[in-house]
Design goal:
The protein starts with a helix and ends in a 10-residue tail after the last helix. The protein is 73% helix and 1% strand. The chain has 567 residues and is mainly alpha-helical. It has 22 helices and two strands.
């Protein structure tokens, strides 16, 4: 199989989804209204509620949801062959992810920028809301802990990425001042920011930062994890325009340039896909393709984490309701293109099938390291960029996106902790909620030892919980559409499919954890399964009631919730 043909077909499918299908659902399903007053204007406070240029908000949203998952998931899933991964990424992006992300933005913007967890209380009920928050909290716990471990591992394995990783923070702070204080135009900001970021990559490639084996009594990996959490805690407390928005916007441009470099290299070198279309000889111990493929690749096809970001931060910055199409759906398109590029890099970046099989000798091998190495070789062959610099570009791209997801993840988990406190009748301020988040996530990351490897203990459940949350979010969107007497099949079909594969995967993994006597994962699996089934039953009951009740008055409905609730 020629990689160029795979790239052309995949990119065409995903872009057609944006230009055709997203236009259909924005007009016929969600009916995005340019005259609707968004929460960013109604509750503007200069901290969380900030009307934002749609391209800047797209950059913030896209990089917040992208992270390392659209690289890790596809890079692992190609062990079943490139064809199943290719179909799930392309079709999932078009019909599942884009609709889910746009719908989450729309649902939250129609309810004062409230989180999807809060909306579950209105549309599913009090008990459903409490269980929904359990699933959200566990997912964010996994996201923050696992991504910190992934980033730390990359900073140790690819020391040339250290300078651009931390230098990007300085660039973002300066860009934020230039945009909001000095009022620079967006094109100038974009050019200066991107040039500075890529300049840092050249510097990093020339001056790699290698930490000693032990620093302050910790391993190098553990040291980076601590620093990352301290940074994420501080970043989550700053107004979004100071760091998060400019950092995410510049990173969004950087990703598309990085993807452009990768795809251009593929066009020039046209490497052959050496991996099988469907792998009939998977290594021993590899789980079955169904349902594990659909939870191994979460981000890049559909992801519940996107709904948390859409309703947690992005909806509070939406300038006009129609901007949800670009921010939400096109954000999913960007992630789909990243996942597609990962599939091509990890199946065509090897010289022979035997070489590919030596890397994919067992399930969960490959991952980010395979993407950086194989993708770097493709860029070197196609564009002549030195292998070291090529690897630095891809490693920095992966690190920066995982780090921006941590920024947003800590902020969102702080919202969830405050929300849980309200349910329990406890007022938790911003500083305390942030400290609670950092304590929980660092406790998980270091739970299995001083090297920080504990964060990877719950990786098998990450994708499953992510997809399950996507299904639960779709159930809220479906109830809203039923109440408005709008077409609901574009939501119900993805909802049913994702729900079935997620619950099936939870049951399969439960048997695996029991056989391995992995009690931590078994208990977490059971908690998530019970909470999910309970929420699904209540959601189904709510859908049935919505069909029987009179259609809602859309103009009055948005004011039913407590206006003091801002989570």
């Amino acid at each position: 199989m020629n990689s160029l043909a795979l790239a052309v077909v995949g990119v065409a499918m995903i872009l057609l989804g944006y230009f055709l299908y997203s236009k259909f659902i924005s007009r016929r399903i969600f009916k995005l209204d340019p005259d609707y007053e968004t929460p960013a204007h109604r509750y503007e406070d200069g901290v969380d509620f900030v009307p934002t240029n749609k391209w800047v908000l797209w950059g913030h949203h896209f990089t917040s949801v992208a992270g390392a998952a659209p690289i890790v998931g596809p890079a692992v899933a190609v062990i079943w062959g490139w064809l199943p991964a290719f179909l799930w990424v392309t079709l999932g992006t078009v019909f599942f992810a884009g609709m889910h992300d746009m719908g989450s933005l729309w649902a939250s913007a129609r309810h004062k920028g409230l989180s999807i967890g809060t909306l579950s209380g209105k549309y599913i009920g009090r008990h459903g809301r409490n269980l929904f928050l359990v699933v959200i909290f566990l997912l964010l716990l996994m996201v923050n802990a696992v991504f910190a471990v992934v980033i730390a591992g990359l900073l140790v394995s690819t020391p040339t990425a250290v300078i651009p990783t931390w230098g990007a923070i300085v660039v973002a702070l300066l860009i934020g001042q230039a945009m909001y204080r000095l009022k620079w135009s967006l094109p100038i900001v974009s050019v200066v920011g991107v040039l500075a970021l890529y300049g840092l990559m050249f510097v990093g490639d020339a001056f790699p930062i290698v930490l000693p084996d032990t620093i302050l009594g910790m391993s190098a990996t553990a040291f980076w994890i601590v620093v990352l959490f301290l940074y994420a805690g501080v970043a989550s407390l700053l107004p979004v325009w100071v760091l998060l928005q400019p950092r995410d916007y510049i990173n969004g441009l950087q990703l598309f340039i990085g993807l452009g470099i990768l795809y251009l290299a593929i066009m020039i070198s046209t490497p052959t896909v050496v991996a099988p279309a469907v792998n009939q000889n998977v290594p021993e111990g590899t789980p079955s393709l169904f349902p594990l493929l659909f939870v191994t690749i979460a981000c890049g096809a559909i992801s519940g984490f996107h709904g948390i970001v859409s309703s947690g931060t992005s909806s509070k910055q939406l300038n006009r309701e129609p901007d949800a199409r670009l921010v939400g759906y096109f954000g999913a398109v960007g992630e789909g293109l990243l996942a597609l590029g990962t599939i091509i890099a990890t199946t065509a970046g090897f010289r022979t099938l035997a070489e590919w099989e030596s890397v994919y000798a067992a399930f969960n091998e490959g991952g980010v390291a395979a993407f950086v190495s194989a993708g770097g070789d493709i860029i070197n062959a196609g564009l002549g960029i030195p292998s070291s610099l090529s690897a630095t570009i891809l490693a920095t791209m992966a690190v920066l996106f995982a780090a921006t997801t941590m920024d947003t993840g800590v902020r969102l988990q702080r919202f969830v902790v405050s929300e849980i406190g309200e349910i329990m009748g406890i007022k938790i301020n911003v500083l305390v909620s942030t400290l609670v988040v950092l304590a929980c996530t660092m406790g998980l990351a270091f739970g299995a030892g001083g090297d920080g490897s504990g964060g990877m203990v719950i990786w098998p459940l990450f994708g499953t919980t992510n997809q399950l949350l996507a299904a639960l979010t779709l159930s809220i969107i479906a109830i809203m559409l039923i109440q408005r007497r709008r077409p609901v099949l574009p939501v119900l079909i993805p909802l049913v499919f994702v729900l079935v594969v997620s619950i099936y995967a939870l049951i399969v993994q439960m048997g695996q954890f029991l056989a391995e006597q992995n009690w931590l994962l078994l208990i977490l699996d059971m908690i998530i399964l019970v909470a999910a089934v309970w929420v699904v039953v209540e959601a189904a009951s709510s859908m049935n009631r919505a069909r029987k009740d009179p259609a809602v008055d859309e103009n009055a409905e948005a004011d039913e919730l407590d206006p003091s609730t801002r989570l």
